[in-house]
TrEMBL record:
Domain of life: Bacteria
GO molecular function, one term: dioxygenase activity
SUPFAM superfamilies: Clavaminate synthase-like (SSF51197)
Annotated organism of origin: Streptomyces decoyicus
Metal-binding listed as a keyword: yes
Family stated for the protein in its record: Belongs to the clavaminate synthase family.
Domain TauD/TfdA-like: 138-301
Keywords: Dioxygenase, Iron, Metal-binding, Oxidoreductase
InterPro entries: Clavaminate_syn-like, TauD-like_sf, TauD/TfdA-like
Pfam families in the record: TauD
Name used for this protein in its record: TauD/TfdA family dioxygenase
Amino acid sequence: MTTGAAPVRQLDATGVGELRQVAEKILAEFHTSATSPELLARVAEFAAELSESTRHELRPVDTDAGLFVLRGLEVDDTEIGPTPSSWATAGDSAAVYDIVLLLLATVMGNPIAWEGQQDGRFVHNIVPAPGHENEQTGASSTVLLSPHTEDAFHPGRAHLLMLGCMRNHDHIATTAASIRNVRLSEADIALLTRPRLPILPDDAYTEAQSYDGGQPAGVPTLFHAKDGLTLRFDPAYTPLDDATPAHRAAYERLSAELARVSGAVSLSPGEVLVVDNDLVVHGRVPFQARYDGTDRWLKRASVRVPARRTRPLAEQDEHGYGQAAIEAHAA
Ligand SMILES: O=C(O)CCC(=O)C(=O)O
Ligand SMILES: [Fe+2]
């Protein structure tokens, strides 16, 4: 695993100032970052007026690394208050950054929320939570959060994932590995582009896990998009025991390659990691939670990019385990 190789994009002083100012204005009007159609309309209105230089820094991911770190936002460690003890108690903690993230997400595409996750909020709080240490979700800590595509089980999943750092005293790294850096044989690629294995809903979606829609359909792990391979990968929720030995071996070689090319990004307060969810799988290293109000704290937004052609058309027929992604802005 390598460190520090992520491409960096720097917001200028104008960009930082306007984002902060606009977010505070929206918060003053609505007194919460919980989204209503009115708040989302205001976000869209202001996002459209952000400066050309801010928009330029928010252009699509444009390297094989499949990600970038946006720098410049300021986060005052005292002002944001203590790290919430779980997403469920986070409420409007550091709400101004929920709005900043929504503005950034709206420039990059269309933010999405899930009814079944974090009360349908568009910006999630990622904090370690007591009792969840060993899960494969963002609330875990002592285990390695294995590399995964975000919301891999669902055809409405994000094209882009944004992780904004509020606090990270122990420099705990997010991991990221791009399919564009992987070396695989043609035979392995051919096997993994076949729709053989389903991806089941993860532990953040308890309702979807009890969905009874019959046998879940197999989906391809790899896909040949116009500009190269894309992937849909979540081994923790893929029933690999059902695969043929040859298929399983190819999947394991892909896992090993992703581990080989994986990088670590330790975010500092104010930095926003933007990950292309079709090119890159992300995870997190294990750590010891503090549970004293000073824990690592990220804010997460998921974004769809209209008319992107990075996935098989057959995804349109998937049931998505009864879950629906709610888009912030009308198409
Ligand atoms: O904690 C992290 O760095 C990443 C967690 C994660 O997988 C996510 O928020 O989707
Ligand atoms: Fe994730």
